[in-house]
């Protein structure tokens, strides 16, 4: 039986559970449940604090886990990433009150408040910066105003919390992070149940990123149309009853679909239809 760690609370929890459900796995229905057994797939899911997930996976007590890349780096446990999951995207960065810290070259001697001491200390060590890390549990944006630190290092998503605290980012992000599926360093990702889970999650990612585009176009414009919609392997082209016309079907990225539809229209394509993909295996 495979044992998998899933975030029980916070930003990562809901989207992780939703993604596993979309991939066909049974998930808890009560958000206070500690575990959920999926007998059909022979997997037990354990709901744990996102911070602790790398510890359980790194020790080998659980086979796989979902956590944030920044939490992974912070923990420094022997785990590695199998797949980026496309949610809980954020940056991790330094911030200070406007005009107080010029740039990342002036951190020597400063006090930095953070809930991610491992991540920040590694960054400072690598650059030989002599700053002091003040470890806090959360709401670190308050630390400067309350006099505990000169600047902070924290997760920034929309930037609204920084603005509210009167802080501005200093320098480039320390790292860019999103949710990831992890396993213990050296474990075999080809183990059949793990490989199947990976294929299913990749299927969910593709179903979210792509749509199915179908349209009719004149056969003499087909090369131009195919250049716009090359699909994954190659588009499906079928003859239409009307002489000199074909129907084309291809997967396209959701993000660019309106531009492609406009360009298809401009080369004379008509009946251009978009449908969602609910699941797939490529
Ligand atoms: N807006 C956000 N706020 C917090 N974490 C975010 C945000 N967007 C993405 N994340 C990611 O979520 C993870 C943080 O998980 P964590 O459990 O700390 O969530 P949380 O929302 O801060 O919950 P809590 O504060 O209750 O612990 C990190 O990997 C972080 O990069
Ligand atoms: O850039 P934003 O969209 O404002 O999001 C980032 C903020 O959200 C998180 O705080 P959270 O609500 O998790 O509280 P915490 O600091 O106690 O973890 C994070 O620690 C930042 O403070
Ligand atoms: Mg938090």
From TrEMBL:
<dbReference type="InterPro" id="IPR018198">
    <property type="entry name" value="ATP_PRibTrfase_CS"/>
</dbReference>
<dbReference type="Pfam" id="PF08029">
    <property type="entry name" value="HisG_C"/>
</dbReference>
<dbReference type="InterPro" id="IPR013115">
    <property type="entry name" value="HisG_C"/>
</dbReference>
<keyword id="KW-0368">Histidine biosynthesis</keyword>
<keyword id="KW-0963">Cytoplasm</keyword>
<keyword id="KW-0547">Nucleotide-binding</keyword>
<keyword id="KW-0808">Transferase</keyword>
<keyword id="KW-0328">Glycosyltransferase</keyword>
<dbReference type="InterPro" id="IPR015867">
    <property type="entry name" value="N-reg_PII/ATP_PRibTrfase_C"/>
</dbReference>
<keyword id="KW-0067">ATP-binding</keyword>
<keyword id="KW-0460">Magnesium</keyword>
<dbReference type="InterPro" id="IPR020621">
    <property type="entry name" value="ATP-PRT_HisG_long"/>
</dbReference>
<comment type="similarity">
    <text>Belongs to the ATP phosphoribosyltransferase family. Long subfamily.</text>
</comment>
<dbReference type="InterPro" id="IPR011322">
    <property type="entry name" value="N-reg_PII-like_a/b"/>
</dbReference>
<dbReference type="InterPro" id="IPR013820">
    <property type="entry name" value="ATP_PRibTrfase_cat"/>
</dbReference>
<comment type="function">
    <text>Catalyzes the condensation of ATP and 5-phosphoribose 1-diphosphate to form N'-(5'-phosphoribosyl)-ATP (PR-ATP). Has a crucial role in the pathway because the rate of histidine biosynthesis seems to be controlled primarily by regulation of HisG enzymatic activity.</text>
</comment>
<feature type="domain" description="Histidine biosynthesis HisG C-terminal">
    <location>
        <begin position="207"/>
        <end position="278"/>
    </location>
</feature>
<comment type="pathway">
    <text>Amino-acid biosynthesis; L-histidine biosynthesis; L-histidine from 5-phospho-alpha-D-ribose 1-diphosphate: step 1/9.</text>
</comment>
<dbReference type="Pfam" id="PF01634">
    <property type="entry name" value="HisG"/>
</dbReference>
<keyword id="KW-0479">Metal-binding</keyword>
<feature type="domain" description="ATP phosphoribosyltransferase catalytic">
    <location>
        <begin position="49"/>
        <end position="203"/>
    </location>
</feature>
<dbReference type="GO" id="GO:0003879">
    <property type="term" value="F:ATP phosphoribosyltransferase activity"/>
</dbReference>
<dbReference type="InterPro" id="IPR001348">
    <property type="entry name" value="ATP_PRibTrfase_HisG"/>
</dbReference>
<keyword id="KW-0028">Amino-acid biosynthesis</keyword>
<protein>
    <recommendedName>
        <fullName>ATP phosphoribosyltransferase</fullName>
        <ecNumber>2.4.2.17</ecNumber>
    </recommendedName>
</protein>
